[in-house]
Write a structure and sequence with these properties.
InterPro entries: Peripla_BP_I (IPR028082). By secondary structure, this protein is an alpha/beta fold. It contains 32 helices and 24 strands. Helix 6 (about 145-160) packs across helix 11 (about 225-230).
């Protein structure tokens, strides 16, 4: 007949509360952030019978059994004393600790509690295996560390099912006969060795062993050194108490890992009961007290939650127990301990963890309460723990895994699609590219925006890519100089152009003028960076593209506005391109943004009417028309024209402000010098919506054959090339007299295109003198010689359109304005408004003596174009470099041609 313990029902209720795991957090669940399970100390005489009843209750718990093990401490100590008499008393205590932990690990890692419950004791298994490797206290020999690593490697290989299969005798024989020798060697030796080396670095147990706090002071810092100490702990004079704590901490850490709830570890959610260890017969004689005390010390020293209920039984109370209560006390023992936990904070002495309870002797069969107590014990002994969450069930896990796989596939597809869409929208650049966020691909396929870090907008032109890459490198250098010398302020200019304005189907070398612009801007930037003054600002240039014909200029202007919110150093815009309606819209948008502009090559008369912030370094069309008429008069006076008349060929595109404005200016200027004027429109190769039907440029070229006066072309270079083609085919042996406007200089700048029609000579207007040498004293070309040495080999045949010089001067205008501001307030960061006001004061003695001539705004508030700006006449005959036939305007001390029109200058110029 089973003994009936008085009030044991209260003990079973307490045990059930301690092994039942809360759904959230850990025990005690009602005290968030105060995790911990007390040690239940049972004091009484009938220890064996009580242990059996507790074990049966834990083993029959529903819906899952509670993992538990009952260990007889007297029996365990007797085995240690008999088998390890060679050890000192301290090491025998450590050996008993090891055996107790091994017994618990074997129980908790078994499959008897279900497939989901076994705990993998990786850390304790490694520590225990190292401690069992040798049993001597002799000094290790010189090969011991090497042998130890080989044994550890073999252990790892044996733990891996695949390598275990490969290493079986039958498999080795089969592999030797059926696979190449190198595959056999790789699979059985090289690959396992590589995986073991990687696992020694990445494996959780190996990394944990070097981070845990015990035995650490003498640790050499490597796995080999620490493991060698564990294989020969007594030779190394290790502290057996520290070794015991290391084993306990490893054992508890494996339990913590198994119970740690993580979304990707659903098995931890199915562990609804804590493991229980019943240490029966704990006393000082069998060193059970020392073992329990080591558990308590590890818990206090690590401060970690341990998912283990330790139950001890003894015949008498221990000193650290404190007050021992009876089971029949009115006080709820667990609630009382939780209250102590609530108020203890972090000051927990070893005795804090004990809940000592005295268990009275079993009731006699004749006791009047025997039957009712038996029923109470039976009811209370039917333990129930929390059912596993529905989402933690194996079926739910399978569904979640399937859903996660589907989501992963969908996510990868979406991410790939999003990446493709992103890259497609941002010019094929990934999110990590620093230029991607400020670039955008338009439906036309053009890439527009701002690229401070070297992206060449998809251009294949080597000159453009090299120049933009150089600017990006100098931008990084400017940032570095500013970091090292904060007094050198950062000034940023955006160089905006129509990078893709090539003729339809044209070759990439049609963009040579763009490369020259960037070369000129880069040269000005280089010279500014090379200054050494403490307050000299450093210059950054942000290349920008507005697409063909500047059609997306407004979009880019809004992008620049967004950049200014994060970068107030942006003070102005240079470049701009082609005097079209889209360019005017861009000027209006930049005016709204509040940025001053200095255009390089634009010359239409009305551009400055649209914005007080607009300036340019090139002359206006009215001045260009006056020079063209004066030159035509000279030709007529010399008899080079058979008749004193002019046919002005212009673009029928109403949005081409340059062509239409130059046409009107030219008509007035030629009429003023006695020419009969005829206007002829042509349909451009790229026309906007609303362009009226007119003959194409090829047809117009054929029709000018036999014209006895001057043909003055005011359109774009790609169309002038078609006119040359038409004339060459119709009257190449007797061509008409042709004069092109300044935009034709883009065609003349390319030797291969220039020499395509050697039978058709022509003249064109240029905004520079048209000749240059890297060996000259020119600021521009001497700098280009350093930055672009390959360009200097062909500079006399390519740099004819003045784009490099004009861009160089446009940037230097800003630098001159900023320099004047620095003279008055050297410590202030120049603003866009201040720079704009300083630009208007560039005149007279403060005018810019530039590479493209003198830039003087006359000192008048509304004067935004330079006065008496240089214009030269260049003659093209075949592939040879054009020859200058004269020039008008101010260029240092040089004397202009005697046929030039009256000067615009407000002050006399030295002749």
């Amino acid at each position: 007949m089973e003994p009936v313990f008085a009030h044991a029902d209260r003990l079973f209720v307490l045990l059930g509360a301690l092994v039942r795991r809360p759904r959230k957090r850990e025990l005690p669940g009602e005290l968030p952030g105060r995790d911990g399970i007390p040690i239940l100390s049972l004091i009484g005489d009938a220890q064996g019978e009580l242990a059996e009843q507790i074990g049966r209750a834990l083993g029959n718990a529903q819906p899952r059994h509670v993992p538990h093990r009952i260990i007889d401490m007297d029996e365990t100590w007797a085995q240690v004393a008999a088998e390890r008499a060679d050890l000192s008393p301290d090491w025998r205590r450590a050996e008993m600790c090891r055996r107790v932990l091994v017994a618990l690990a074997e129980e908790f890692s078994s499959a008897r509690y279900g497939r989901e419950q076994p705990v993998r004791f990786r850390r304790f298994g490694l520590v225990n295996w190292l401690l069992e490797m040798t049993r001597t206290d002799e000094a290790p020999n010189s090969q011991h560390a090497r042998d130890m690593l080989r044994w550890v490697r073999n252990r790892e290989i044996q733990r891996r099912p695949l390598f275990g299969f490969l290493r079986s005798p039958n498999t080795e024989v089969t592999l030797q006969q059926q696979v190449p020798w190198w595959a056999y060697l790789l699979g059985l030796y090289v690959l396992p060795l590589m995986l073991f080396r990687a696992w020694r670095v990445l494996g959780s147990e190996y990394r944990w062993l070097l981070r845990q706090p015990y035995m650490a002071p003498a640790d050499p810092g490597t796995f080999e050194g620490f493991a060698l100490r564990l294989t020969q702990p007594r030779w190394g004079r290790e502290d057996p108490a520290q070794v015991s704590k290391l084993m306990i901490n490893a054992f508890l850490e494996d339990l913590r890992t198994a119970y740690r709830r993580r979304p990707w570890r659903r098995r931890a959610y199915r562990r609804t009961a804590y493991c229980a260890a019943f240490l029966k017969g704990v006393s000082a004689d069998n060193n059970g007290r020392a073992l329990v005390r080591a558990f308590v010390e590890v818990r206090n020293e690590t401060g970690a939650f341990d998912p283990l209920l330790v139950v001890t039984s003894s015949t008498e109370a221990e000193p650290e127990h404190g007050r021992v209560r009876s089971l029949n006390d009115d006080l709820d023992h667990y609630a009382a301990w939780s209250e102590r936990l609530r108020s203890a904070g972090h000051s927990r002495d070893p005795g804090f963890w004990y809940v000592p309870l005295r268990v009275d002797a079993p009731l006699p069969a004749a006791h009047p309460d025997h039957e009712i107590q038996e029923m109470r014990n039976a009811v209370a002994g039917r333990f129930t723990n929390e059912p596993a969450p529905v989402l933690a069930a194996r079926s739910a896990t399978a569904v979640l895994v399937a859903l996660a796989a589907l989501l992963l596939v969908a996510g990868v597809g979406f991410a790939f699609d999003t990446r493709q869409n992103w890259e497609e929208r941002h010019c094929g650049l990934s999110r990590s590219d620093p230029d991607a966020a400020t670039l955008e691909r338009e439906p036309t396929g053009e890439c527009i925006g701002v690229a401070p870090h070297g992206y060449a907008f998809g251009s294949a032109d080597k000159r453009i890519k090299t120049a933009i890459s150089t600017i990006a490198e100098q931008n990084a250098e400017a940032d570095r100089i500013h970091r090292e010398t904060p007094s050198r302020r950062v000034i940023t200019l955006v160089h905006l152009s129509a990078l893709l304005s090539t003729p339809a189907g044209g070759a990439s070398n049609a963009l040579s003028y763009v490369g020259e612009q960037f070369q000129g801007a880069a040269s000005a930037q280089r010279r500014q960076l090379d200054r050494r003054g403490e307050n000299d600002p450093v210059l950054r240039i942000f290349p920008a593209s507005a697409g063909s014909g500047m059609r997306f200029g407004e979009v880019v202007a809004r992008g620049i506005e967004a950049m200014r919110r994060d970068d107030p150093t942006i003070v102005g815009v240079t470049g701009l391109d082609q005097s079209r309606k889209a360019t005017i819209d861009t000027i209006n948008e930049l005016t709204r943004v509040g940025l001053p502009m200095v255009a390089t090559t634009m010359s239409a008369d009305t551009l400055d009417d649209h914005s007080p912030l607009y300036y340019q370094v090139s002359p206006q069309n009215r001045r260009e028309a006056a020079v063209a008429a004066a030159y035509a008069k000279r030709l007529a006076d010399k008899g080079d024209l058979r008749e004193r008349k002019v046919q002005i060929v212009y673009s029928a595109d109403p949005t081409d402000e340059y062509s239409n404005n130059l046409r009107d200016d030219a008509a007035g200027a030629f009429t003023g010098v006695g020419f009969d004027v005829e206007k002829r429109a042509y349909a451009p190769s790229t026309a906007s919506t609303g362009t009226p039907s007119r003959p194409g440029a090829q047809t117009v070229g054929e029709r000018v054959c036999g014209y006895r006066g001057l043909v003055f072309f005011t359109g774009r270079p790609e169309d002038f090339e078609r006119i040359l083609s038409g004339a060459n085919g119709a009257c190449g042996s007797s061509p008409p007299t042709l004069l092109g406007g300044d935009d034709v200089a883009r065609l003349a700048a390319d030797p291969s295109r220039r020499g395509a029609f050697p039978r058709i000579p022509y003249d064109f207007l240029d905004f520079t003198l048209g000749s240059a040498s890297c060996n000259s004293s020119s600021d521009l070309y001497s700098t280009m010689k350093k930055l672009f040495p390959e360009e200097c080999k062909q500079v006399e045949t390519t740099s004819l359109d003045g784009h490099a010089a004009l861009a160089f001067d446009a940037v230097n205008l800003y630098l001159k304005a900023v320099g004047r501001l620095q003279d008055t307030a050297p410590r202030l960061q120049p603003s866009a408004l201040a720079v704009w006001q300083a630009l208007s004061r560039i005149h007279g003695s403060s005018a810019l003596d530039g590479e493209s001539g003198r830039v003087d705004f006359g000192g008048v508030v509304d004067q935004q174009t330079p006065l008496d700006k240089l214009i030269s006449v260049q003659r093209v005959h075949g592939a040879e470099r054009p020859a200058q036939v004269g020039y008008c305007g101010r260029m240092g001390e040089l004397r202009q041609s005697d046929w030039c029109p009256p000067k615009e200058a407000l002050e006399p110029v030295r002749q």
